[in-house]
Amino acid sequence: MKSQDIRAKFLEFFESKKHQIVPSAPMVMKNDPTLMFINSGMAPFKEYFLGNGTPKNNRIADTQKCLRVSGKHNDLEEVGYDTYHHTMFEMLGNWSFGDYFKKEAIAWAWELLTEVYKIDKDILYVTVFEGSDEDGLQLDQEAYDLWKEIVPEERILMGNKKDNFWEMGSQGPCGPCSEIHVDIRSDEEKAKIPGAELVNQDHPQVVEIWNLVFMQYNRKADKSLEKLPERHVDTGMGFERLCMVLQDVKSNYDTDVFTPIIREIEAITNTEYGKDEKTNVAIRVIADHVRAVSFSIADGQLPSNNTAGYVIRRILRRAVRYGFTFLNKKEPFIYRLVEVLDKKMGKAFPEIKDQKHLIQNVIKEEEASFLRTLDQGLVLLDGLMENVKGTEVSGQKVFELKDTYGFPEDLTELILKENNLTYNKKEFEKLLEEQKGKGREATAIQTDDWVTILEDEEEEFVGYDTLEVDVKLVKYRKIETKKDGVQYQLVFNLTPFYPEGGGQVGDKGYLESQDGDIVYIIDTKKENNLIVHIAKTLPKKLDTTFKAVVDEKQRMRTAANHTATHLLHQALREVLGTHVEQKGSAVHSKYLRFDFSHFSKLTSEELRDVEDFVNARIEGKLPLIEKRNQPLAEAMEEGAMALFGEKYGDTVRSVRFGQSIELCGGTHVENTADIWHFKIKSEGAVAAGIRRIEAITYDATKEFYFENNRAYYEIKDALNNPKDAVKAVTDLKDENAKLKKQIEDLLKEKAKNLKGDLKNELEEINGVQFLAKQVDLDQNGIKNLAFELGGEIKNLFLFFATATENKVMLTCYISKELAAERGYDAGKVVRELGKLIHGGGGGQPFFATAGGKNPGGIPKVMERVREYVK
Ligand code: ATP
Ligand code: MG
């Protein structure tokens, strides 16, 4: 069965069991401080399990893109070495939100596997939670009894808390699970060891394919468990592993999900998969990672230097490294695999098809830049190997290579090994640990349980219509981080506060109780479905009515920037073309930032056109036409812009100003006239094919023009108020250039004279033409002088010092032959003598310089330098 059909059959089956089939959510998480990427099928539904929202349908099924490269689930280091863990994979899942429970979940899983997919029952094993003393839990008898009716007892195995008790995090919903494992070994292998002994033992052909989680508890901050009022089912089946079973192969990489990519890698790198283990690992790594990186980019996460972007960059670099080291690929090639990926998956996941060119460009650029890093690292490593004493390089040096230059330690180790060297791993790991420890401390978090004040209150956002409203506290909790200290998170029944989202910052403001107690809200965030208000203190009285007031000025500025962002988006598509797509946006009160796909720098005319386009719409006084709860299809019909990597519900909010229509949850001005004016401050590149514009609006533009004007008058003043300031500056520059040239000529002349003088001052000591002298030349002049003298006179040993204010420079030049013959080392000379001027330096045996700040040391230096030739 082809992988496409396997996927379709799963969805059809659960549709027939009355499940709503939904598309995969984007892999990159938004609004969840605990999770960067979706790492299991349930992640998009977290809010339902937490009770912060109600699903439209209490039975759902889908295939979900997952990425397991950070946090609780991190399979990155396994990938490539084994045949059944991926970074990015699809998880097929079915859910019951307070609807069916163990009975149906178990029966349907069995029916699908054995009757629809017709998997031989004899290769299947199931596991049941055995209980846990620590939590005071018994065997999951209910599940056991259900399995016993369909599976022979010897195929039902007991599982411990680690394998068979699933928890969302250190707090939150959890419960026992039953897993289904397959044994796809040959009959001879099976005769040697029974499959039951290999379940959960990391055997590559006895693997878990499906996990059925029965959520029935809630884990509290003090670690105790309480029963959930509603019980849920959450199942997850690895799609690639299922394909392996149904296509009767022994590795996920031998399924049609991967073989086309692998064939392409073989063709590009001129290698063969299956011949040699190192090559195999490298090919698997690359085949896997290109998927993870491509899907992340398609879902809006570009490789970068921080958080989620850095994780993606590291995955791609891992692939480049394996290609570089084991497949001998020294130029970009991974981007060429995107074409096959699109052919294979573009149908099921149109985001890959639609953004193919962008994905290719970004990957290519990243590859090229990391290959340059590797080249640079190799040069540094060569230097290290030349200077090593003994056979061990220090851990500190290897750490520096990694930390400062991004040169990976395993590559360092490999190259050292080829040169019969090693490095101090203990020291290296200690440094790495120290660094990680620092990171951990900064984010260390203590989160208390929610304290409920009002039961059964659903929160409502009223901030589109009002900035001030009476609210009641529903619940709150205390959190503590190293960075921010103690903070309180407050949730109300109603709120006018906009939570950070869609690029727009969260509202600030205050709460005032009837008796005048004031608590400041310093930020507002979204946590999945919850709107969380952040305060430094708690109100004195909790069960009372508060006036909640949003900071109007900040909101107004932010709204002006948000509306301007929509107009900018429209302007860019109008001026540059419809290939322009939003790739990131930040709407602050002081400025806006907009990232978009486009391949070249904007010309000044284009920038001008974009500004004019936006300002024309501001002058056009376009009113806001907002539709809340509009059916998605209808909004799209009207021409609304939707964004990649955004999860939309069946109904959406559309925001329209003239011809600009976007699906957007942000806050906007009532009329574009409220923006006053739009001004672009900068335009530049952020990644291959991605440009960034920063701009300002509203009162920030007034400030901007005012400041510019003031600077202009100050410049004019400094120039003694000429009529034409631009001409005055140009004249000044021309004159400056002329003077510079004159000085240069004079210095050259001086050096020439000096050269003549110095020649006469040379002293012969032991067959060496020696001179040590303090001179008054710039560093470049000294260098030229030394090399010119060196070209004319053999066996030269020159030493110069210069002193200006508190800066001293030492320069040592030794004829190359002389240095080689007598073992003189200019580097050593300046390093040692540098100490006398409280400085340091270095260089090569024939030329070296040192800088310092103690002119008082020069006489001593001049005395000591003679000793080197004596
Ligand atoms: P394993 O022990 O094999 O790592 P798991 O216990 O981490 O699996 P779950 O978290 O229960 O797996 O995920 C549900 C299913 O998703 C698994 O049964 C498996 O089929 C699949 N799966 C899990 N991790 C991966 C991965 N890294 N690559 C591919 N499939 C995976
Ligand atoms: Mg795992």
Automatic annotation (TrEMBL):
Any one GO cellular component localisation term in the record? cytoplasm
Localization per record? Cytoplasm
Annotated coiled-coil segments of the chain: 729-768
Q: Which GO terms describe its molecular function?
A: alanine-tRNA ligase activity; aminoacyl-tRNA deacylase activity; ATP binding; tRNA binding; zinc ion binding
EC number of this enzyme: 6.1.1.7
Q: Where in the numbering of this chain does the Alanyl-transfer RNA synthetases family profile domain appear? A: 1-707
Required co-factor(s) are: Zn(2+)
UniProt key word DNA damage? no
Please write the reaction equations for the catalytic activity of this protein. tRNA(Ala) + L-alanine + ATP = L-alanyl-tRNA(Ala) + AMP + diphosphate
Gene3D superfamilies (UniProt xref): 2.40.30.130, 3.10.310.40, 3.30.54.20, Bira Bifunctional Protein, Domain 2, Threonyl-trna Synthetase, Chain A, domain 2
Its GO biological process annotations read: alanyl-tRNA aminoacylation
Cofactor note as given: Binds 1 zinc ion per subunit.
Q: Which UniProt keywords apply?
A: Aminoacyl-tRNA synthetase, ATP-binding, Coiled coil, Cytoplasm, Ligase, Metal-binding, Nucleotide-binding, Protein biosynthesis, RNA-binding, tRNA-binding, Zinc
Positions of Zn(2+) binding: 562, 566, 664, 668
**Task performed by this protein:** Catalyzes the attachment of alanine to tRNA(Ala) in a two-step reaction: alanine is first activated by ATP to form Ala-AMP and then transferred to the acceptor end of tRNA(Ala). Also edits incorrectly charged Ser-tRNA(Ala) and Gly-tRNA(Ala) via its editing domain.
Domain remark in the UniProt entry: Consists of three domains; the N-terminal catalytic domain, the editing domain and the C-terminal C-Ala domain. The editing domain removes incorrectly charged amino acids, while the C-Ala domain, along with tRNA(Ala), serves as a bridge to cooperatively bring together the editing and aminoacylation centers thus stimulating deacylation of misacylated tRNAs.
The record's section on NCBIfam families has:
alaS
- Of which family is this protein a member? Belongs to the class-II aminoacyl-tRNA synthetase family.
Its recorded name reads: Alanine--tRNA ligase
Species assigned in the record: Kordia periserrulae
Q: Which gene encodes it?
A: alaS
